[in-house]
Amino acid sequence: MRFLSINGSLIVRTFSEVHADVLQLMSELSDRGIGRGDLVGLMGPNSYEWVVADLALLGLECVSVAPPAERRMDPGAVDELAEKYGLSAVLCTQVLPAGAALPPGVALLEDRPLRFEKRRRDDGGHRPSLPDDVFSIAFSSGTSGTKKGLMMSKKGVENTIRTSAEAWEVTGNDDILIVMPFSNFQQRYLMYTAVRCGADATVVAPERMFQKLREFEPTIILGPPSFFELVYNRVHGASGRERLPQYAAAAVHAVTGGRFGHRVRARLGRKWLSMYGSRARLMLTGSAPVPPRTVKLFQQLGAPLFEVYGSTESGWIAFNLPGRHRIGSAGRPVPGVDVVIAEDGEVVVRTEHPQALGYVFEGVETQAQVFLPGGRIATGDLGRFDRSGFLRLMGRKKNVIVTRSGVKINPEELEEAVEQGCRIAKAMVASPGQDGLLTCVVWLDAWQSAERRAEVESCVGELNRKRESSHRIADVVFRPSDELTVESGLLTRNFKVDRSAAMRKVFAESTRVGR
User: Fold this and answer.
1) How far is residue 400's CA from residue 327's CA, in Å, rounded to a whole number?
2) What is the Cα–Cα distance from 53 to 47, expressed in whole angstroms?
């Protein structure tokens, strides 16, 4: 296992060394009175110590609680979280200011052996009664910005690991890349998958990812679309002469239907794809809308990029994989998961072993709308099956815009058309007046350039001419692309646009161009 921090320090450990470190930490935690059933917080940026602590809590049969807390926090804020969630202790990695006085029950994983006093039950807040199968509380924040605490199931996560290992054919020769924070549960499950299969895992700070991938050469890369859109932007920002290899690869792909000429296309695409290393055999993307143009470009260049679909509540739902994939789809349902489309178009799934058993602490009021009778889980996504059984996602149910005449509009479909037709970073379609009139927020680099604005206006105008009047964009709002960050609050941890935050910010500061 390799761990590269943002400051460039590298830690390399064998499985036997990890095992020894986990046993040592289990002993230290046990000496402090931490044991079965205790809720223990894990906070801070990704690190080797974070992984060791997570595995140690699993070994002690504690319930880990991992809120999204990767940036510097005031000790008082950590104490408040411990009280709110009724934690027996909080284990931190680089999240507290140097030299800060530690609240009761808080320990720094870099300062060993651990020294802390277990928080008494009456020191904490309400401690819920959890099902026996729950081993962790993970938190997710959807595009609405509503945080939910999920009770993660041992059986459910074991099923997710098994599904991935079999579908991806993971072996000891693989190296799984982990970039997103461990508080995002998907990253922890990837680590568990590596451990189960005896594969390597490479954990890299996001800021250093593209500097080091060529050196580390992972074989399995799973990330949001932004991981891969960088290549698309570079290719389409290059001169015609520079793009000649890409044109040739696209021609080979078109002639062979993508079934042959893989090595030729890979050689032609090496200039653009070498940043991912030379060993990547599987690139998977999801967690946010995936532009088909990006997947198509990668496959033209001989790169194994495929869209996958799942949720923290249910686990994996559908996969595209080599030999059975459709660009623009989320794939076919994975074995053991029943997927149906409800009357209103919502994707509803059922699996014998869902990844989560319900909500706790946050989002409890929405549980009845998500965890349905009969073991069904409502995803909140709109979708349909094509004739070949591939699931195609149409957008989010909660984002549907209803006009005054009752016409329902799926904004994601309009956003995809704008993003494909215009040279922009991101688009968001909304009805800020809630009157059915559509406004398109466009984020782009040269957002104050009259030439770039005119180009976008022309693109939107052309798209409008092809649509019914109810689906036409009435206004365009231009915003700088560099404000789209997790730190600004406009992107979620999965790099989706946080629509609620964007609505609040954009329409308080917008520069609007009428159409």
Assistant:
1) 24
2) 10
**Per-residue pLDDT tens digits of the chain, which is 515 residues long:** 999 887 788 999 999 999 999 999 999 999 999 999 999 999 988 899 999 999 999 999 999 999 887 677 788 889 999 999 999 999 998 878 777 788 899 999 999 999 899 998 654 456 788 999 999 999 986 434 468 999 999 999 999 999 999 999 999 999 999 998 899 999 999 999 999 999 999 999 877 887 788 889 999 999 888 889 889 888 988 888 999 989 999 898 888 877 777 888 888 988 889 889 889 999 999 877 788 889 999 999 999 999 999 999 999 999 999 989 999 999 999 999 999 999 999 999 999 999 999 999 998 998 999 999 999 999 999 999 999 999 999 888 888 888 777 788 889 889 988 988 888 889 999 988 777 789 999 999 888 889 999 999 999 999 999 988 889 998 999 999 999 988 888 888 777 888 888 888 888 765 444 34
CB neighbours of residue 196 within 10 Å: 14
Q: How far apart are the first and last CA of the chain?
A: 55
Q: Which helix (H) or strand (E) holds 141?
A: strand 134-141
Neighbours of 267 (CB within 10 A): 14
Closest CA to 127 of 76, 174, 65, 180: 65
Distance CA 336, CA 167 (A): 12
What are residue 56's phi and psi, to 5 degrees?
-65, -40
- Amino acid, single-letter form, for residue 79: D
Maximum Cα interatomic distance, the chain, rounded to a whole number of Å = 71
Three-state DSSP at 443 gives strand
